[in-house]
Task: structure prediction
Amino acid sequence: MPAVETQQLTKEYGAVHALDGLDLTIERGELYGLLGPNGSGKTTTIEILTGQRVPTSGEVSVLDIDPVENPLDVRRAVGILPEREDPPSFLTPREYLQFVGDVRDIADVDARIEEWSTKLEFRGILDTLSTDLSEGERQRVMLAQVFIHEPELVFIDEPLVNLDPLMQAEVRDILTAYCEAGNTLFLSTHFMEVAEDLCSRVGIIADGKLVTERDPQSLDEDGLLETFATELGGESAVEAGRP
Ligand SMILES: Nc1ncnc2c1ncn2[C@@H]1O[C@H](COP(=O)(O)OP(=O)(O)OP(=O)(O)O)[C@@H](O)[C@H]1O
Result:
């Protein structure tokens, strides 16, 4: 069974058709990127796949679980990093990750905190209040909470946001190694260069529909993405500092 499958998924917010018959199949071990301009339906897709939002119609399966029927089971099984989410300002990264360890029933949470704070290079600020951390440091803590329970499927909305170029390269390596170990990663981005550099397959979404799926090496060989040029990759992810 694929890691993720949707059939004719729709989501309406009143008169807005956020998803309009979305068909997705993502196999285990893929590093799949959903690329699309602002408002194309990426966040709505992730929210439905992770049991946070109920679709208007259509079928969904995530690790063989139906997130509409069993949202808690899906959230237990996967890692999630929503866009623009921070650790609570009044907790230190260590306290926050211990809290995540409690919620996720992780027996050896202290060892995992050591492991992930080392990998993501924030050991030095483990005991600093999150309110005093930079945006990039907070993003690294949030990335750690995605992986700390070693899920086999992870959803990340805009994965490299707020990271400096060196850290972006480190995170790319971590995400790639994670998929090479047989796990699956679903990420969304509106930066073409993130999709090109990171993904093994890219789906292009516009107006809630999957327009096409591409090998990242031939992402724009026919100039299709020129139509989204101002929104997609119109500025460099590195220059923008928020890919
Ligand atoms: N809670 C909501 N209520 C009403 N409309 C919504 C809601 N959430 C999203 N929408 C609308 O649904 C459409 C898809 O939004 P969504 O956030 O899924 O797009 P996106 O591709 O993630 O955008 P972005 O790149 O800006 O994060 C947009 O038109 C948006 O305004």
Helices lie at 42-49, 71-77, 93-103, 109-119, 135-147, 165-180, 192-198, 237-240. Confidence is low (pLDDT under 50) at residues 233-243.
